[in-house]
DNA sequence: TATGAATGAGGTTTCATTCAT
DNA sequence: TATGAATGAAACCTCATTCAT
């Protein structure tokens, strides 16, 4: 009803240099300690919010629960985020950015394309499928239509890069003769599809029928590269 | 604001017995009109609820909006459904059951396995990808974890049958020499994965990068069956 | 799910003479049958409403439940009563009037005053305490403040008459030397108080500590008339 | 319309620690004012709820009205009580506990039994009959059957103790020769009955026929103890 | 900066009453 | 006359957001 701008929303970056210098007298290192504590709190909120949003979805998540889980008061959340909606949006960014960063820090592309992709799949298996990170993917699928900015961000930062990267690998594989199906480069989604399905399957159907994602991905690669010799 | 019948929503089954007594000439009394109107209303509610749940997800959907869209009063919804939650659960059943029924009315399996699967993919393309039915799939992915009964139902009625059916086709393809990769029968998910990805892609990223699902599926089948001759 | 009329609720008695008479022409006694049916229905509604109002109080009673219990449709209630409120008010009248009528049909006042009062107490014990009629008293105590017309009616028809009657008996007792405490005639409530308490006790505390109302009333009369010889 | 603090409702116990820190001199910060305000609010809610429940009964009372009367927002009620039902149950406890406490702080039993009982009756007259406390008794009679926990509590804390206390006094009276009717000790309800009737009479029939409760109780005691000399 | 009590709009659900059949 | 589907006002309760401390 009353609309008051609430400058509390500043990102931690903003926040960092927003420190006001201490009361006269004794203030040895508390400045950094202050900032550190704030960053910790923010991290706790982000972590807690992730858990809750994943468990319940955006609309059904209560800030009260996030606060409780993060060990802060409800009001504190508003010192870090403008409101629930932008918290969700920032959240996705905050969690995804380091993933993208890691992807960009490519390992030097040595070995065969199959080996490269197998390595990649291995990481994906370990760090995404069946983990909270995987659930985040499902969360984005779930909330994307209501949060275009989230879908935009996710497409721009993750999907389009992932597709481009895969396309590059596929073209390399084709050039080297490892991959026969030339049209695959036009639809790198095909390469990724089983991995995505595995992510979703773990969230929804794991208890009905557990899925050996690793083995499935291997079969999929055999399909693309032809039968392999060893593992 | 009030009254906006929207009888468009009725499933064809509902529709069948919702008709007055068809025989032309005799139309003295609107005999079954009471029951018919009730069925129409119920169908309108189902249709409206589908739209709203798909557009906003379970928690963010307001019964008020469903009622408005269905052209009924809020209270009317409660004549048909116990509460919001069971409305959602029944909804999924109501919409999915006829789909399953249609799948069970198999077309006589003639021709090559590839042809069979292409036909199937064609239907899927036309009737699921990019349609409200596709959005329902996304909705189930989104809400499944919070509605185990929905996930259970969907697994039992759709997923497990779909997987089984695909496995059968794959085995046939292997037996006939159409499919070389024998392990594929262990993971029919691989066969379906690109189709599922297409469904999700249309919901989330169509406006960022339109996807020619038909062509993608064709490439995927080439990968599995080897290069095709004709279309 | 779909609402199945359930007119099954009618008692078999109702049902028996529920026969509708034949096609036009023959209309022997249907007028009376009509009226009879209506009266029966009304009686069923009154009975059902009593039960429900006693069990739940005015506000918490649902017309739906009354209708169900009476074996009529909800709308039918409105053919007999203007609305819930006046139904309640009329109800009290309907149930109480015959009681008053019976009281007015006094048994010829023979014997000692104590015998008269003992007879009266005996009837009260049998017909009020621990019965639905007793619950009605509690209901009036409960709802009286919100239904002045009910309280008025009850005071006028029952309380004031009862008090007057008791006062007459007390004065007779005093005149005959059966009762020593002359001031008792000024407060006949004292004579009735334990009986009323018994009514309330049965409703509220019977399961905590059963009360032998008969014996209590006897002790009370001993107090007023002096020790008795026999029962 | 908004804001009508009504702090009058606090029980004396609440009030005690609702005060700021009394020790004069040190009053720099309104230290406990947070807690104090909370206690005040709670007391206001309790008071308002009492009024409304008494005026309308449980089912017909609107939380909105309680909030308005207490001068708080609707949501505030839920900071103090789980829901309407448990609010009602707690309410009875909150109001009755101090009464019981006061009863337990017995005045030294000096004088004759009749004097003792007259004193007690006098207090009852002043503090219960015709007061809101009396209305509470009627409310319990009204709602008891639907709130077994309330009836239980009331029986345990008030009725059973009251009965036991009265029985003790009666036995004392019999032992001292003040009371002749020995069976009275078996039904102390008889001793209390006119007082209870007075309570109910005031709620329901005061405007039809005012009742001089004091005089009635005196007559009742005369009946039990024999004619008195003085007042 | 951090808190959490307080707010009140808004959501779900109930139910007295109406009215077309 | 009787029905019961439909209505929609109104009740309870939740929870994002604010703000005094």
UniProtKB/TrEMBL annotation, chains A, B, C, D:
Domain HTH tetR-type: 39-99
PROSITE patterns documented for this protein: HTH_TETR_2
Ranges annotated as DNA-binding: 62-81
Pfam families in the cross-refs: TetR_C_11, TetR_N
Key word Transcription present: yes
Keyword Hydrolase: no
Protein name according to UniProt: TetR family transcriptional regulator
InterPro entries associated with the record: Homeodomain-like_sf, HTH-type_TetR-like_transc_reg, HTH_TetR, Tet_transcr_reg_TetR-rel_C_sf, TetR_C
Keywords carried by this UniProt record: DNA-binding, Transcription, Transcription regulation
Transmembrane domains' residue ranges: none
Annotated region described as Disordered, given as residue ranges: 1-34
GO MF entries: DNA-binding transcription factor activity; transcription cis-regulatory region binding
């Amino acid at each position: 009803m009353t609309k008051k701008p609430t400058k509390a929303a500043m990102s931690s970056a903003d926040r960092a240099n927003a420190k006001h210098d201490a009361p006269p007298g004794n203030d040895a290192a508390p400045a950094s300690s202050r900032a550190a504590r704030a960053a910790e709190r923010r991290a706790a909120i982000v972590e807690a919010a992730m858990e809750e949003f994943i468990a319940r979805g955006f609309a059904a998540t209560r800030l009260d629960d996030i606060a409780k889980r993060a060990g802060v008061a409800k009001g504190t959340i508003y010192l870090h985020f403008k409101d629930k909606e932008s918290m969700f949006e920032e959240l996705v960014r905050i969690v995804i950015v380091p993933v993208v960063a890691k992807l960009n820090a490519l390992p030097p592309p040595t070995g065969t394309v199959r080996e490269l992709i197998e390595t990649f799949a291995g990481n994906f298996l370990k760090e995404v499928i069946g983990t909270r990170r995987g659930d985040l993917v499902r969360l984005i699928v779930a909330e994307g239509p209501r949060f275009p900015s989230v879908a935009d961000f996710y497409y721009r930062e993750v999907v389009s890069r992932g597709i481009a990267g895969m396309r590059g690998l596929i073209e390399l594989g084709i050039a080297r003769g490892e991959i026969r199906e030339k049209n695959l480069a036009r639809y790198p989604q095909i390469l990724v599809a089983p991995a995505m399905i595995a992510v979703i399957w773990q969230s929804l159907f794991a208890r009905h029928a557990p899925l050996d994602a690793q083995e499935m991905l291997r079969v999929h690669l055999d399909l693309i590269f032809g039968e392999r010799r060893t593992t």
